[in-house]
Amino acid sequence: MNISVDTIDAVANWFGLLLGIVVAILGWVQWRNREDFRVHLTTSMLTMLLGIVIALLSVVLHYTGTRIQARSDAEIGRLQMQSTTLSDQLNHIRTPRTLSEDQKQILRESLPLVPKGPVIVTYLSVATDAEKYSKQIGQVLEEAGFSVTSSNHLWLQLAFDGVYVCVRSQGTVPAHSAGIQNAFKAAGIMMKVFYNEIFLDKLGAPDNGIVVVVSNKAIDRD
Q1: Of the ranges 38-47, 64-73, 109-118, 119-128, which one carries the lowest mean pLDDT score?
Q2: Hey, how many other C-beta atoms are within 10 angstroms of the C-beta on 25?
Q3: Checking DSSP bridges between strand 163-167 and strand 192-195, what pairing results, if any?
């Protein structure tokens, strides 16, 4: 027979409360039946006080224990939630990114409608899934009629997470940039746009070219 710690604690608290009440009653009975006023008054009063103290102590301990238990349960719940979040993030990081067949189908339907222009696809070298993922993206762009160049530039660090588009400046955004972003958004892949002329020059991009960058996995941060 298994008895929980909470059950034992509750029984102990109620036993203490009952004991205090019994002792207080015994003290009251002694006082009622006193023969020697001086002796029995002192004894009965001490007995009643002892009973009252025991009863109050049991109540205080029970109340304190309940509050501590509630706080402990809340803290355990919070830690379990954090653990679950960290576990989900770890699984997210470990799972390689890939274009699903449904995503490919959506891109095959929407990308041919986008104005065409040169695209360079590059990736973060230290991200384990980035090279394969970038090749999938480059392939679907090429199939849609874009002039795609795959860059093997060694990137050990990139400024941003996720998949994004880089153009020269805000005032010279090629027409096919927004079209590509919208097509991938329809497929569930968000591509932000950033402006960095030096970055494009480093990859030898033409003036009307854009760079699709596959960086490390983006993790949501609250």
Answers
A1: 38-47
A2: 13
A3: parallel
What type of residue sits at position 189? I
Separation of alpha carbons 166 and 187, rounded Å:
20
Q: Residue 53 contacts by C-beta under 8 Å, 6 or more apart in sequence? A: 20
The total number of residues written for the chain in this structure: 222
> Tokens standing for 110?
């929407």
Minimal CA–CA distance to 110: which of 187, 192, 211? 187
pLDDT confidence of residue 95: 84
Measured over the CA atoms of residue 170, residue 202, residue 125 and residue 138, the dihedral's sign is positive
Instruction: Note the pLDDT tens digit of each residue in 41-50.
Output: 555 555 556 6
Residue 7's pLDDT band, with cuts at 50, 70 and 90, is: low
Model confidence pLDDT, tens digit, residues 181-213: 999 999 999 999 999 999 999 999 999 999 999
Q: What is the CA radius of gyration of the chain?
A: 37
Structure tokens that stand for 42 in this block: 């002192």
**Euclidean distance between the first and the last CA atom of the chain, given in angstroms as a whole number:** 46
44: left (phi over 0), alpha (psi -120 to 50) or beta: alpha
